[in-house]
Amino acid sequence: MALGTRTAGKDMQENPRSSKELLSDLLQALEGDREALDALIDSFLASYPGHLQHISVAVGTADAPYLEKSAHHFKGSLGIFCQTEALELVQRLMEMGERSNLDQAPQALERLEPEMVALSATLRAFIDR
Amino acid sequence: MAARTDEMVAILLVEDEEVALQLLAAILAKKYPGIALHAAGNGRAGLELFREHASDIVITDINMPEMSGLQMADQIRSLNPRTKIITLSAGSGELQPGGSGFETDYYIYKPINFALLFAALEECFAALLPGKRVPA
What we know:
The structure holds two protein chains of two kinds. By secondary structure, chain A is mostly helical. Helix content of chain A is 78%, strand content 2%. Chain A contains six helices and one strand. The longest helix of chain A is centred in the middle third of the chain and has 27 residues. In chain A, 35% of the residues are buried. Chain B has a single domain, classed as 3-Layer(aba) Sandwich (Rossmann fold), CATH 3.40.50. Chain B contains four helices and five strands; from the N terminus they run βαβαβαββα. In chain B, helix 2 packs parallel to helix 3. Chains A and B meet through strand 1, helix 1, helix 2, helix 3 and helix 4 of A and helix 1, strand 5 and helix 4 of B.
């Protein structure tokens, strides 16, 4: 029988860390294995354009349930490497989908795209270092 | 990953986002090389792996296709009530602790603070039956 749920980690949602700090944390959790972290970054860099495409289709077709689902899915991997502007925008898009109110979704998507370019540059620079 | 023996702790990891699954698997394999680790991409596949390997601890995302983490955990508990269950959640828009009427042992918010995840796991290891080899 469960002893009752213990919750933890809300503070990291409330006090976001920079991508550089997150990479440092991940490297520590991987016990300094740069190769493993580089492989994970490569996987993320290869997969995120597909996530953005799903979100873009959902916004373009005003499909709120699909927007909620695709933004939620993207948030899972994005949050590993980013807790700032891009993650907030994806969170906002997910909430717009939840509320079925997509009025501001095109603007949020427009802001998300350059944020992702900047994040990619940070991640690539980490790999190339 | 080590081949499992009866006294090894077995962990089932269930997460539908591929990069997150890879990351968790890599970190757990590094931190606890003595565990038997199995991974699935949704609740239904996770339940099948649980039936196959009788995992001691389940770490699961909540929102997943086919079968949610909580639906899977509920069925796992009916198969073995002693199984320790750690849920990982983005929080917003998802069920909160106890909100489904189903209690997990630990509910850890994403982004994951790995120190908290390790602390939860080590409490789970300590609570497992005597005779289980706690991973170094």
